[in-house]
Amino acid sequence: MLSIEQALNEMLAQLPAPQQTETLPLSQASQRICAADIISPINVPSFDNSAMDGYAVRLADLAQSRTLSVAGKAFAGNPFNGEWLPQSAVRIMTGAMIPAGADAVVMQENVQLNEDGTVTFNEMPKLGQNIRRAGEDVKQGDVVLKTGEKLTALSLPLLASLGIAEVPVFPRLKVAILSTGDELVPVGEPLSSGKIYDTNRFTVKLLLEKLPCEILDFGILPDDEALFEKAFLQAQEQADLVITSGGVSVGEADFTKTILEKLGTVNFWKIAMKPGKPFAFGKLEKAWFCGLPGNPVSALVTFYQLVQPAIAKLSGYSQWQAPQQLKAIASENLKKGVGRKDFQRGFYWVNAQGQLEVKAVGFQGSHLFSAFIESNCFIVLEAERGNVQAGEMVTIEPFNELLD
User: Fold this and answer.
1) Could you give the CA distance from residue 242 to residue 238 in angstroms, rounded to a whole number?
2) Domain map of the chain by residue range?
3) What is the pLDDT of residues 240-289, one digit of tens each?
4) Which fold, 326-398?
Protein backbone atom coordinates (compact mmCIF):
# COMPACT_ATOMS: atom_id res chain seq x y z
CA MET A 1 0.00 0.00 0.00
CA LEU A 2 1.09 3.57 -0.66
CA SER A 3 1.53 5.87 2.30
CA ILE A 4 -0.75 8.89 2.22
CA GLU A 5 2.35 11.08 1.85
CA GLN A 6 3.49 9.11 -1.23
CA ALA A 7 0.04 9.33 -2.79
CA LEU A 8 -0.24 13.07 -2.20
CA ASN A 9 3.28 13.78 -3.50
CA GLU A 10 2.60 11.75 -6.65
CA MET A 11 -0.67 13.59 -7.26
CA LEU A 12 0.75 17.07 -6.74
CA ALA A 13 3.77 16.31 -8.93
CA GLN A 14 1.45 15.58 -11.85
CA LEU A 15 -1.12 18.31 -11.40
CA PRO A 16 -0.44 21.60 -13.22
CA ALA A 17 -1.03 25.10 -11.95
CA PRO A 18 -3.48 27.13 -14.08
CA GLN A 19 -2.16 29.30 -16.88
CA GLN A 20 -5.19 31.34 -17.91
CA THR A 21 -6.33 34.42 -15.99
CA GLU A 22 -9.24 36.82 -15.99
CA THR A 23 -9.78 40.26 -14.48
CA LEU A 24 -12.67 40.97 -12.13
CA PRO A 25 -13.92 44.01 -10.23
CA LEU A 26 -13.25 43.74 -6.50
CA SER A 27 -16.96 43.28 -5.79
CA GLN A 28 -16.93 40.01 -7.74
CA ALA A 29 -13.56 38.67 -6.63
CA SER A 30 -14.33 37.33 -3.14
CA GLN A 31 -12.89 33.84 -2.53
CA ARG A 32 -11.13 33.84 -5.91
CA ILE A 33 -7.40 33.18 -6.25
CA CYS A 34 -5.11 36.10 -7.08
CA ALA A 35 -3.31 35.48 -10.40
CA ALA A 36 -0.49 38.05 -10.10
CA ASP A 37 1.51 39.91 -7.48
CA ILE A 38 -0.34 43.11 -6.59
CA ILE A 39 1.96 46.14 -6.23
CA SER A 40 0.82 49.16 -4.24
CA PRO A 41 0.59 52.25 -6.48
CA ILE A 42 0.53 54.62 -3.50
CA ASN A 43 1.63 55.10 0.09
CA VAL A 44 -0.90 54.32 2.83
CA PRO A 45 -1.41 56.68 4.48
CA SER A 46 -0.61 58.91 1.53
CA PHE A 47 0.37 61.81 3.84
CA ASP A 48 1.44 62.36 7.44
CA ASN A 49 -1.71 62.62 9.56
CA SER A 50 -2.80 62.92 13.15
CA ALA A 51 -3.58 59.85 15.25
CA MET A 52 -5.45 61.97 17.83
CA ASP A 53 -7.69 64.95 18.30
CA GLY A 54 -5.33 67.57 19.75
CA TYR A 55 -2.75 70.16 18.78
CA ALA A 56 0.06 70.00 16.24
CA VAL A 57 3.18 71.64 17.63
CA ARG A 58 6.79 72.45 16.84
CA LEU A 59 9.04 71.23 19.63
CA ALA A 60 11.22 74.36 19.30
CA ASP A 61 8.19 76.53 20.20
CA LEU A 62 7.38 74.41 23.27
CA ALA A 63 11.02 74.52 24.37
CA GLN A 64 10.59 78.30 24.78
CA SER A 65 7.12 78.31 26.34
CA ARG A 66 4.51 75.72 27.32
CA THR A 67 1.74 78.20 26.46
CA LEU A 68 1.05 78.83 22.77
CA SER A 69 -1.53 80.69 20.75
CA VAL A 70 -3.70 78.82 18.18
CA ALA A 71 -2.95 79.60 14.55
CA GLY A 72 -5.90 77.75 13.08
CA LYS A 73 -7.53 74.35 12.62
CA ALA A 74 -6.92 71.24 10.53
CA PHE A 75 -9.69 68.74 9.81
CA ALA A 76 -9.71 65.41 7.98
CA GLY A 77 -10.06 66.37 4.34
CA ASN A 78 -9.49 70.06 5.08
CA PRO A 79 -5.84 70.76 5.95
CA PHE A 80 -4.53 73.90 7.62
CA ASN A 81 -3.35 76.27 4.91
CA GLY A 82 -2.89 79.49 6.89
CA GLU A 83 0.27 81.20 8.08
CA TRP A 84 1.80 79.32 11.00
CA LEU A 85 3.54 81.95 13.10
CA PRO A 86 6.16 81.09 15.72
CA GLN A 87 4.94 80.36 19.27
CA SER A 88 1.61 78.94 18.08
CA ALA A 89 -0.03 75.54 17.66
CA VAL A 90 -2.58 74.21 15.18
CA ARG A 91 -5.81 72.62 16.42
CA ILE A 92 -5.97 69.25 14.61
CA MET A 93 -8.45 66.38 14.34
CA THR A 94 -7.82 62.68 13.90
CA GLY A 95 -6.88 61.89 10.30
CA ALA A 96 -6.10 65.48 9.37
CA MET A 97 -2.92 66.27 7.44
CA ILE A 98 0.00 67.29 9.64
CA PRO A 99 0.95 70.94 8.96
CA ALA A 100 4.39 71.42 7.43
CA GLY A 101 6.99 71.78 10.18
CA ALA A 102 5.02 70.04 12.94
CA ASP A 103 7.05 67.64 15.09
CA ALA A 104 4.31 66.10 17.23
CA VAL A 105 0.64 66.09 18.14
CA VAL A 106 -0.41 66.52 21.77
CA MET A 107 -3.76 64.92 22.57
CA GLN A 108 -6.39 67.36 23.73
CA GLU A 109 -6.69 65.71 27.16
CA ASN A 110 -3.14 66.86 27.95
CA VAL A 111 -3.67 70.58 27.37
CA GLN A 112 -5.37 73.38 29.24
CA LEU A 113 -7.52 75.92 27.39
CA ASN A 114 -7.05 79.46 28.68
CA GLU A 115 -9.61 82.28 28.71
CA ASP A 116 -7.49 84.37 26.32
CA GLY A 117 -7.62 81.60 23.67
CA THR A 118 -4.12 80.30 24.28
CA VAL A 119 -3.31 76.68 25.13
CA THR A 120 -1.00 75.47 27.90
CA PHE A 121 0.65 72.07 27.38
CA ASN A 122 1.00 69.87 30.45
CA GLU A 123 3.83 67.79 29.00
CA MET A 124 6.68 67.97 26.52
CA PRO A 125 5.83 65.55 23.71
CA LYS A 126 8.33 63.25 22.05
CA LEU A 127 9.44 63.78 18.48
CA GLY A 128 6.83 62.26 16.14
CA GLN A 129 4.32 61.61 18.93
CA ASN A 130 0.79 60.79 17.63
CA ILE A 131 1.82 61.28 13.99
CA ARG A 132 0.99 58.58 11.44
CA ARG A 133 3.69 58.75 8.81
CA ALA A 134 3.06 58.45 5.07
CA GLY A 135 3.63 54.83 3.98
CA GLU A 136 3.52 53.59 7.57
CA ASP A 137 0.91 50.95 6.65
CA VAL A 138 1.83 50.30 3.01
CA LYS A 139 4.65 51.79 1.00
CA GLN A 140 4.37 52.56 -2.69
CA GLY A 141 5.93 49.63 -4.57
CA ASP A 142 5.24 47.09 -1.81
CA VAL A 143 3.86 43.69 -2.83
CA VAL A 144 0.58 43.67 -0.91
CA LEU A 145 -0.78 40.37 -2.27
CA LYS A 146 1.12 37.49 -3.80
CA THR A 147 0.13 35.26 -6.67
CA GLY A 148 -1.84 32.32 -5.33
CA GLU A 149 -3.44 34.06 -2.34
CA LYS A 150 -7.16 33.79 -1.74
CA LEU A 151 -9.04 37.10 -1.95
CA THR A 152 -11.04 37.57 1.23
CA ALA A 153 -12.94 40.09 3.33
CA LEU A 154 -9.54 41.09 4.74
CA SER A 155 -7.46 41.38 1.56
CA LEU A 156 -10.06 42.95 -0.75
CA PRO A 157 -10.56 46.06 1.45
CA LEU A 158 -6.78 46.50 1.41
CA LEU A 159 -6.87 46.67 -2.39
CA ALA A 160 -9.77 49.10 -2.21
CA SER A 161 -7.75 51.34 0.12
CA LEU A 162 -5.08 51.50 -2.58
CA GLY A 163 -7.55 52.62 -5.21
CA ILE A 164 -7.29 49.29 -7.06
CA ALA A 165 -10.67 48.57 -8.63
CA GLU A 166 -9.90 45.33 -10.50
CA VAL A 167 -7.80 42.27 -9.77
CA PRO A 168 -6.45 39.43 -11.95
CA VAL A 169 -7.67 36.00 -10.84
CA PHE A 170 -7.44 32.42 -12.01
CA PRO A 171 -10.63 31.00 -13.54
CA ARG A 172 -12.76 28.85 -11.26
CA LEU A 173 -11.87 25.19 -11.49
CA LYS A 174 -14.76 23.27 -13.07
CA VAL A 175 -15.44 20.13 -11.06
CA ALA A 176 -17.87 17.42 -12.15
CA ILE A 177 -19.28 15.21 -9.39
CA LEU A 178 -21.16 11.95 -9.71
CA SER A 179 -21.94 8.84 -7.70
CA THR A 180 -21.99 5.25 -8.86
CA GLY A 181 -24.19 2.36 -7.82
CA ASP A 182 -27.70 0.93 -8.30
CA GLU A 183 -28.21 1.06 -4.53
CA LEU A 184 -28.15 4.87 -4.36
CA VAL A 185 -31.22 7.08 -4.06
CA PRO A 186 -31.16 10.92 -4.23
CA VAL A 187 -31.62 12.69 -0.91
CA GLY A 188 -35.31 13.49 -0.39
CA GLU A 189 -36.78 10.54 -2.24
CA PRO A 190 -38.35 7.55 -0.43
CA LEU A 191 -36.11 4.53 0.20
CA SER A 192 -37.08 1.11 -1.07
CA SER A 193 -35.69 -2.18 0.15
CA GLY A 194 -31.90 -2.46 -0.20
CA LYS A 195 -31.41 1.21 -1.11
CA ILE A 196 -29.38 3.92 0.64
CA TYR A 197 -29.24 7.68 0.30
CA ASP A 198 -26.53 9.22 -1.86
CA THR A 199 -24.93 11.26 0.91
CA ASN A 200 -21.42 11.28 -0.62
CA ARG A 201 -22.29 13.42 -3.62
CA PHE A 202 -24.22 15.77 -1.33
CA THR A 203 -21.22 15.97 1.03
CA VAL A 204 -18.69 16.55 -1.74
CA LYS A 205 -20.87 19.30 -3.17
CA LEU A 206 -20.98 21.07 0.21
CA LEU A 207 -17.19 20.87 0.50
CA LEU A 208 -16.65 22.14 -3.04
CA GLU A 209 -18.87 25.13 -2.33
CA LYS A 210 -16.19 26.30 0.13
CA LEU A 211 -13.46 26.08 -2.51
CA PRO A 212 -12.85 28.24 -5.61
CA CYS A 213 -14.81 25.86 -7.85
CA GLU A 214 -17.68 25.74 -10.29
CA ILE A 215 -19.67 22.58 -9.57
CA LEU A 216 -21.19 20.42 -12.31
CA ASP A 217 -23.52 17.80 -10.82
CA PHE A 218 -23.93 14.68 -13.00
CA GLY A 219 -26.08 12.84 -10.49
CA ILE A 220 -26.11 9.09 -9.87
CA LEU A 221 -24.79 6.57 -12.40
CA PRO A 222 -26.45 3.15 -12.43
CA ASP A 223 -24.31 0.05 -12.85
CA ASP A 224 -24.61 0.16 -16.62
CA GLU A 225 -21.41 0.18 -18.65
CA ALA A 226 -22.79 2.15 -21.61
CA LEU A 227 -24.36 4.84 -19.42
CA PHE A 228 -21.23 5.01 -17.31
CA GLU A 229 -19.00 5.65 -20.31
CA LYS A 230 -21.42 8.21 -21.75
CA ALA A 231 -21.53 10.16 -18.49
CA PHE A 232 -17.74 10.22 -18.19
CA LEU A 233 -17.35 11.42 -21.75
CA GLN A 234 -19.79 14.26 -21.06
CA ALA A 235 -18.17 15.13 -17.74
CA GLN A 236 -14.64 15.39 -19.10
CA GLU A 237 -15.84 17.63 -21.93
CA GLN A 238 -17.16 20.16 -19.42
CA ALA A 239 -14.90 19.82 -16.38
CA ASP A 240 -11.27 20.21 -15.38
CA LEU A 241 -11.65 17.60 -12.63
CA VAL A 242 -14.07 14.69 -12.28
CA ILE A 243 -14.80 13.32 -8.79
CA THR A 244 -16.73 10.11 -8.17
CA SER A 245 -17.62 8.19 -5.04
CA GLY A 246 -17.87 4.42 -5.06
CA GLY A 247 -16.63 1.98 -7.66
CA VAL A 248 -12.95 2.07 -6.67
CA SER A 249 -12.84 -0.87 -4.24
CA VAL A 250 -11.87 -4.43 -5.03
CA GLY A 251 -14.99 -6.41 -5.86
CA GLU A 252 -17.05 -3.50 -7.19
CA ALA A 253 -18.38 -3.35 -10.76
CA ASP A 254 -15.63 -4.62 -13.09
CA PHE A 255 -16.42 -2.11 -15.83
CA THR A 256 -15.49 0.86 -13.60
CA LYS A 257 -11.77 0.26 -13.97
CA THR A 258 -12.16 -0.77 -17.63
CA ILE A 259 -14.01 2.42 -18.63
CA LEU A 260 -11.69 4.74 -16.70
CA GLU A 261 -8.58 3.20 -18.21
CA LYS A 262 -10.22 3.33 -21.65
CA LEU A 263 -10.70 7.09 -21.25
CA GLY A 264 -7.26 7.81 -19.83
CA THR A 265 -4.71 6.65 -17.29
CA VAL A 266 -6.13 6.05 -13.83
CA ASN A 267 -4.32 4.47 -10.88
CA PHE A 268 -6.41 2.43 -8.46
CA TRP A 269 -4.47 2.79 -5.26
CA LYS A 270 -4.60 1.11 -1.89
CA ILE A 271 -3.49 3.78 0.55
CA ALA A 272 -2.20 2.97 4.03
CA MET A 273 -4.76 5.20 5.73
CA LYS A 274 -7.88 4.52 7.77
CA PRO A 275 -10.56 5.27 6.84
CA GLY A 276 -10.09 5.57 3.09
CA LYS A 277 -7.87 2.75 1.79
CA PRO A 278 -9.35 2.58 -1.76
CA PHE A 279 -8.66 5.70 -3.82
CA ALA A 280 -8.24 6.35 -7.53
CA PHE A 281 -6.34 9.14 -9.23
CA GLY A 282 -5.31 9.85 -12.77
CA LYS A 283 -5.92 11.66 -16.02
CA LEU A 284 -8.82 11.15 -18.35
CA GLU A 285 -8.37 12.34 -21.91
CA LYS A 286 -9.55 15.87 -21.12
CA ALA A 287 -9.85 16.08 -17.32
CA TRP A 288 -8.18 14.95 -14.12
CA PHE A 289 -9.91 12.29 -12.04
CA CYS A 290 -10.27 11.45 -8.34
CA GLY A 291 -12.26 8.44 -7.20
CA LEU A 292 -13.38 8.42 -3.57
CA PRO A 293 -14.35 5.33 -1.58
CA GLY A 294 -18.06 4.59 -1.19
CA ASN A 295 -18.23 4.65 2.62
CA PRO A 296 -19.32 8.15 3.76
CA VAL A 297 -16.55 8.74 6.32
CA SER A 298 -13.90 7.36 3.95
CA ALA A 299 -15.14 9.65 1.18
CA LEU A 300 -14.95 12.72 3.41
CA VAL A 301 -11.53 11.90 4.88
CA THR A 302 -9.93 11.18 1.48
CA PHE A 303 -11.46 14.37 0.07
CA TYR A 304 -10.10 16.38 3.02
CA GLN A 305 -6.62 14.84 3.00
CA LEU A 306 -6.04 14.27 -0.73
CA VAL A 307 -8.56 16.05 -2.95
CA GLN A 308 -8.47 19.35 -1.04
CA PRO A 309 -4.74 19.98 -1.73
CA ALA A 310 -5.18 18.70 -5.30
CA ILE A 311 -7.91 21.28 -5.95
CA ALA A 312 -5.70 23.96 -4.40
CA LYS A 313 -2.94 23.10 -6.89
CA LEU A 314 -5.28 23.05 -9.89
CA SER A 315 -6.87 26.34 -8.78
CA GLY A 316 -3.55 28.17 -8.44
CA TYR A 317 -4.03 28.45 -4.67
CA SER A 318 -0.29 28.23 -3.96
CA GLN A 319 -0.66 29.89 -0.54
CA TRP A 320 -2.92 27.08 0.68
CA GLN A 321 -1.53 25.44 3.78
CA ALA A 322 -1.93 21.86 4.90
CA PRO A 323 -4.07 21.38 8.02
CA GLN A 324 -2.25 22.47 11.16
CA GLN A 325 -0.91 19.70 13.39
CA LEU A 326 -0.67 20.05 17.17
CA LYS A 327 0.28 17.79 20.06
CA ALA A 328 -2.35 16.84 22.63
CA ILE A 329 -2.75 14.47 25.57
CA ALA A 330 -5.03 11.51 24.98
CA SER A 331 -7.63 11.71 27.74
CA GLU A 332 -8.64 8.07 27.25
CA ASN A 333 -7.41 4.88 25.61
CA LEU A 334 -7.57 4.78 21.81
CA LYS A 335 -7.83 1.58 19.77
CA LYS A 336 -5.44 1.41 16.84
CA GLY A 337 -4.08 -1.39 14.66
CA VAL A 338 -0.54 -1.26 13.27
CA GLY A 339 -0.16 -0.80 9.51
CA ARG A 340 -2.18 2.24 8.41
CA LYS A 341 -2.20 5.91 9.40
CA ASP A 342 -5.43 6.44 11.30
CA PHE A 343 -7.58 9.58 11.15
CA GLN A 344 -9.93 9.23 14.10
CA ARG A 345 -12.66 11.76 14.70
CA GLY A 346 -11.89 13.61 17.92
CA PHE A 347 -12.74 16.53 20.17
CA TYR A 348 -9.94 18.61 21.70
CA TRP A 349 -9.96 21.26 24.39
CA VAL A 350 -7.62 23.20 26.71
CA ASN A 351 -7.54 21.71 30.21
CA ALA A 352 -7.13 23.55 33.51
CA GLN A 353 -3.35 23.36 33.20
CA GLY A 354 -3.44 25.06 29.80
CA GLN A 355 -2.61 21.86 27.91
CA LEU A 356 -4.43 20.42 24.93
CA GLU A 357 -6.39 17.24 25.59
CA VAL A 358 -8.28 15.14 23.10
CA LYS A 359 -10.70 12.24 23.08
CA ALA A 360 -12.18 10.11 20.32
CA VAL A 361 -15.81 10.81 19.46
CA GLY A 362 -18.16 7.89 18.89
CA PHE A 363 -17.44 4.67 17.05
CA GLN A 364 -14.82 5.02 14.31
CA GLY A 365 -16.33 2.81 11.60
CA SER A 366 -16.01 4.21 8.07
CA HIS A 367 -19.79 3.97 7.59
CA LEU A 368 -20.63 5.87 10.80
CA PHE A 369 -20.91 9.56 9.92
CA SER A 370 -22.69 10.86 13.03
CA ALA A 371 -19.45 11.18 15.08
CA PHE A 372 -18.44 14.14 12.89
CA ILE A 373 -21.19 16.26 14.43
CA GLU A 374 -19.41 16.47 17.80
CA SER A 375 -15.86 16.49 16.42
CA ASN A 376 -13.50 19.41 15.91
CA CYS A 377 -10.35 17.58 14.84
CA PHE A 378 -8.77 14.44 13.49
CA ILE A 379 -6.61 12.40 15.86
CA VAL A 380 -3.76 11.40 13.55
CA LEU A 381 -2.12 8.16 14.65
CA GLU A 382 1.02 7.02 12.84
CA ALA A 383 0.91 3.88 10.71
CA GLU A 384 3.42 2.03 12.90
CA ARG A 385 1.61 2.93 16.11
CA GLY A 386 -0.64 0.54 18.00
CA ASN A 387 -3.14 1.17 20.79
CA VAL A 388 -2.78 4.46 22.66
CA GLN A 389 -2.97 4.63 26.44
CA ALA A 390 -4.57 7.54 28.28
CA GLY A 391 -1.93 10.16 29.04
CA GLU A 392 0.15 9.53 25.91
CA MET A 393 0.83 12.37 23.47
CA VAL A 394 -0.87 12.21 20.08
CA THR A 395 -1.01 14.42 17.01
CA ILE A 396 -4.25 16.24 16.21
CA GLU A 397 -5.38 18.21 13.18
CA PRO A 398 -7.97 20.85 14.10
CA PHE A 399 -10.52 21.05 11.29
CA ASN A 400 -9.78 23.88 8.87
CA GLU A 401 -12.45 26.06 7.27
CA LEU A 402 -13.54 23.22 4.99
CA LEU A 403 -15.20 21.44 7.93
CA ASP A 404 -16.16 24.48 10.01
Assistant:
1) 10
2) 4-18+172-315, 22-40+139-170, 49-132, 326-398
3) 999 998 877 655 555 777 888 889 998 889 999 999 999 999 999 999 99
4) Beta-clip (2.40.340)
